[in-house]
Structure to design on (247 residues):
């Protein structure tokens, strides 16, 4: 088992945000492991972004809806790098569907990837961090769930899963504090337009955001890195939404 002389971060999923985060972490002195389920092109690009800054980047295929893959992903990362210092859970199942059309599979897809996988990966990662004297976990929620009330119809499983992520963050922060493992949550808002979004819909979002613009993937990356840089913030949820929750 090789041991990295740099700190090691594992990022699950994320595509465009994963790319920005991989680069930001590499600049901060991390080697970066990235998992992907279907984004075979996006994950290697994020690994390459880390290598451009002198870091080692490696990708792992993992279906995080499968509990066994969650544990295997953590173990594969530690086997490859020799350590694990930070875990960032970006993977998410994001589907809009009317309530009347929802199926058990729709419900499970969101809860299993967004919430259960966060729990299982954290449970597998904690012993490795404890062995090194501590670490950081950053889970990703959503600005709507962080606002404490749903705002858009058609996202029942997603909203519930992301609200659960905030509760999981707080519970894990308390459970793991004695191990010096800090657990926090980032709740992005209008960061990146959905693929295929019209010019009109993008402009409408900009009008709804007090700062009047999209944040970009880098805004989330900066928030995550800021939490990892801290040694005294835990159990917190940070909204990265340009003030969208204020309206």
């Amino acid at each position: 088992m090789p041991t990295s002389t740099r700190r090691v971060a594992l990022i699950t999923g994320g595509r465009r945000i994963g790319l920005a985060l991989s680069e930001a972490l590499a600049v901060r002195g991390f080697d970066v492991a990235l998992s992907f389920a279907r984004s075979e092109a996006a994950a290697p690009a994020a690994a390459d972004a880390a290598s451009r800054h002198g870091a080692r980047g490696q990708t792992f295929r993992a279906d995080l809806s499968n509990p066994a893959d969650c544990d295997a992903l953590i173990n594969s990362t530690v086997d490859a790098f020799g350590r694990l210092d930070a875990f960032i859970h970006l993977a998410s199942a994001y589907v809009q569907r009317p309530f009347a059309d929802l199926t058990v599979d729709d419900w499970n897809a969101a809860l299993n990837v967004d919430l259960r996988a966060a729990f299982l990966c954290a449970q597998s990662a904690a012993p490795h961090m404890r062995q090194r004297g501590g670490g950081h976990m950053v889970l990703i929620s959503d600005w709507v769930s962080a606002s404490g009330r749903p705002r858009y119809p058609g996202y029942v499983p997603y909203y519930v899963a992301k609200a659960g992520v905030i509760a999981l963050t707080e519970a894990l922060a308390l459970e793991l504090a004695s191990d010096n493992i800090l657990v926090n949550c980032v709740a992005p808002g209008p960061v990146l337009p959905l693929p295929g979004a019209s010019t009109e819909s993008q402009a409408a979002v900009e009008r709804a955001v007090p700062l009047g613009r999209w944040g970009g993937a880098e805004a989330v990356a900066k928030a995550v890195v800021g939490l990892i840089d801290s040694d005294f913030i835990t159990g917190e949820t940070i909204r990265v939404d340009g003030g969208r929750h204020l309206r």
